[in-house]
Amino acid sequence: MKAGDTSAPTDRGRIEPPTLTAIRKAADLLRAGDIVGMPTETVYGLAADALNPEAVRKIFAAKGRPADHPLIVHLPDASHLPQWAASIPKGAIALARVFWPGPLTLILKREAGVPDEVTGGQDTVGLRVPSHSIALGLLQQFGSGIAAPSANRFGRISPTTAAHVHEELGDKVAMVLDGGACAVGIESTILDFSRDVPEILRPGAITADDIARVIGRRPRVRGEVEEGAPVGVADAPRVSGALAAHYAPRTPLRLVAAAHLVEEAGMLVGEGSRVAVLAHTTPNPHDARLIWHAAAPDPAAYAHDLYAALRELDTLGADFILIEALPSGPAWRAIADRLGRAAVGSGAEQDET
Ligand code: TXA
Ligand code: MG
């Protein structure tokens, strides 16, 4: 399209099937400093050349994300680590060997050449090798690090399909590679390995126990109260996913114990409210006044469907979304984390973006 010509149709933002031609086109767009939607096994990412500060700034503009929030750099494989990380502890190498490609992000001391735009000016960088075949194909074609946050507007629900990315960002992205629905469905586990004690900053599919089995010690878990630790010492959030209000639908959302779910929903509809329910064990009471959405009873399938379900429940024009409270086991921890934040952020006007 010629400069100034606004009438010509544009295919910018188009969802493209993941052919080799489309993957090459996406790599060329990244080289040219543009941004593209990229599937990963966790959620879709908004990708840019991690070594091109101007391209990285486009990510922040498209998301409406504050510039001091660092981005994860995605690598084609672990052999690229030394170009990005200044020191790589033995434990980090062991974890990369076991969990990469896969949903684990390692925070390490950064190499000097990593742009401040990527690290938010911090002395560390987040790195991971995703396991989605299309992401790996794009990384191999591109041959270097790809910075990619989740491809949603800041504070909103992460996208788990190409259509979600289109909904969130439209033609702000050059194109979206369609990799189908993300297998994991929630964002990677973030493990800070840059300080003395490894610490999980964001829980994900890879749990503290999974990590302990590899490095021989249990990482600290941010937000988990340790025995004997002072309570109420709040760090400034270095992880935007650690802001209390995040992953949030517009409809007010509440978590309700299974024992009270049907009763509470009934009470609200009795008062004239429209109520949507997401329940993973409570049977549908077949009350015509309720919108009932059954969730999977096992955590992996629940996580896989969660963001698509939240998006759908959020489009129904309900006054409330009630979600059956989750079990407390480690396999549910990352999901409980996301739902807790969704509850805090829900219903707010979009002042956070
Ligand atoms: O699964 C995922 O991690 C997805 C896919 C696309 O890979 N990405 C993702 O990116 O969730 P994002 O930007 O939405 O969340 C990454 C989080 C951010 O909250 C960011 O603050 C944190 O990682 N992060 C990145 N680099 C960091 C660093 N050096 N220190 C602390 N936190 C960091
Ligand atoms: Mg995100």
Give structural attributes.
disordered C terminus, 353 residues, 2 domains, four-stranded parallel sheet, single chain, binds threonylcarbamoyladenylate, Rossmann fold, globular, binds magnesium ion, alpha/beta, DHBP synthase
How is this structure best described in words?
With 353 residues, the protein is α/β, with parallel strands linked by helices. It folds into 2 domains: 14-230, Alpha-Beta Complex (DHBP synthase), CATH 3.90.870.10; 253-350, Threonylcarbamoyl-AMP synthase, C-terminal domain (Rossmann fold, 3-Layer(aba) Sandwich), CATH 3.40.50.11030. Helices cover 31% and strands 17% of the residues. The protein has helices at residues 20-31, 53-63, 81-84, 90-99, 116-119, 133-142, 162-169, 208-215, 258-270, 299-314, 333-345; strands at 14-16, 36-38, 45-49, 72-74, 104-109, 124-128, 146-147, 175-177, 189-192, 199-202, 220-221, 253-256, 275-279, 290-294, 320-324. The strands form 3 sheets. Strands 2-3-7-4-6-5-9-10-11 form a 9-stranded mixed sheet, sandwiched between helices. A 4-stranded parallel sheet has the order 12-15-13-14, sandwiched between helices. A two-stranded parallel sheet has the order 1-8. β9 (189-192) and β10 form a beta hairpin. α1 crosses α6 (133-142). The radius of gyration is 21 Å and the shape is globular. The protein starts with 13 loop residues before the first strand and ends in an 8-residue tail after the last helix. It binds threonylcarbamoyladenylate and magnesium ion. Threonylcarbamoyladenylate binds next to β5 and β6. The site of magnesium ion (MG) has 4 residues, from loops.
